[in-house]
């Protein structure tokens, strides 16, 4: 069984055609797993639906608490990309033993159709969570990064290792 | 560096609006990696563009030859799903040492937009090829299978382990 | 009120991922009108779901019968493009008085996402049926054609006037 | 020949994945006509690329000037929906003789894939501009409205007649 925690982020944003701004409705994760014809046992739980720029200490506590209590040792978390590294660091600080935690996100909302990277990122993160050693990782751009060796390049939107 | 070999399959099929049938044009792999915002070094080579139902011994020889000669130890192969298990078995029979070979495909052409599983499968296969031990694998439905323990269920279109 | 008769055609075809061939399930018309945010009173009725190559005299009788009995004077018909001209001629031969009948179709199935012309064609046909004088027309390629002055160019897939 | 004037609006907006906001790049109109397999002679000219909330007197002057100088009598204008009625009124005030002017827009950007109404609206507007009497019209929701009898319902996003 793989535990999936939804926290929001660009991944799950939608376009509000009245206001012209982005907002959250339900997560797209279940329909994405279906479209991906995924046959793994996946348990999806929406912890929150927020922009990661608005994620605060108490939100990260909720995520950490759920990761600790989770009976499964493979955890995939969808998250806004702006602050995903901070959440990865927070989770690593909790020393959650024996669990592989992979955080991923998207640069373009899944709801925006054939331009979004979200579906690809979900496929990657799902594979990494099954194969990586216990620890906390960020998965983006087809790669995985250790929580203590990753930064989002704010200009390009790509994730990079610190020492490269 | 990750070597990607394109062999065709549903993954890369397109709709011919004159004849109403499916056909191959160029592979979509480069644009898929771009859309996935992939920052890995990926070398894409189209070995053939065929339906796996038409794949013959000599075609598999070409694939095996390229896998053997390939200077990189991570190889991702796109392939028609109907005969992907046969090709995996063929490659395993060649005892290609020290290389991780992951074959993947799609049930619905990538060109058919937001219904296709191809983009998700590519993300998964790309992650598996980076993390699995040397050997030959098939990646579908969010999972990976060892070449000698997988079968495509022709009725459902899902891949299953032999002994489950 | 605008009457919409669905007869099938490429417009409504879908991809069967088990057999790899195209087939019909339910029509996409209702969801297309919703996505187009259409506020016209539209009555949608599926008369048949067939490829126009398989359309026979008795099928055209059903279409003609429904057009004659229809209480509304604006009728939009979705149809396979290969034989849409033949059906237009058949309907014109019935001298249905005082009704504007517009037939349209698609070269690429609506279900194939952002490559299909179907959504555009529906928008055009819907506008033409509201504004053209009584008579029988074919609407394709952003244009309308009188039933007795149109032919499908089988090589290019475009509709053309006979005398141009 | 049909003259198409692009002025921006939601129709042509795109998602900026760095800032998370919407912006304008090039218009999608040419690729939309191609995808619609349109065979009409269409002349596309981008007058401006702005949100209609930012459209000012001088912008409307540019649009009116171009409509007056245009050698063709069928003019289609893409426009933001929030202020499209105001621009229609402005153009009607100029008494441009003998020309059919149809303004249209979209509630969801064309770039957002299979959720956008833009492609349908373009098909409708293109048909209306070919068939309506000279005058100024707004085309949305599958319908056309006279410039002096239309209002956008800000709550629902639908266009309505004033006296209904």
Q: Which strands sit side by side, in order, in the main sheet of chain A? A: 4-1-5-6-7-8
Largest sheet of chain A: 6 strands, mixed
Our Rg estimate of chain A from Cα atoms comes to 15 Å
The most extensive interface, with participating residues per chain, is:
A-B, 36 and 36 residues
Mean pLDDT across residues of chain A: 97
List low-pLDDT spans of chain A. Answer: none
- Whole-Å distance between the termini of chain A? 35 Å
**Which fold does the CATH topology of chain A refer to?**
Rossmann fold
CATH superfamily of chain A: L-asparaginase, N-terminal domain
Global structural class of chain A: alpha/beta
Percent range for helical residues of chain A?
25-40%
Beta-strand percent range of chain A: 25-35%
Q: Which CATH top level class of chain A fits? A: Alpha Beta
Question: What is the architecture of chain A at the second tier of CATH?
Answer: 3-Layer(aba) Sandwich
**How many separate structural domains of chain A?**
1
Q: Treating each run of at least 4 consecutive H or I residues as one helix, how many helices of chain A?
A: 4
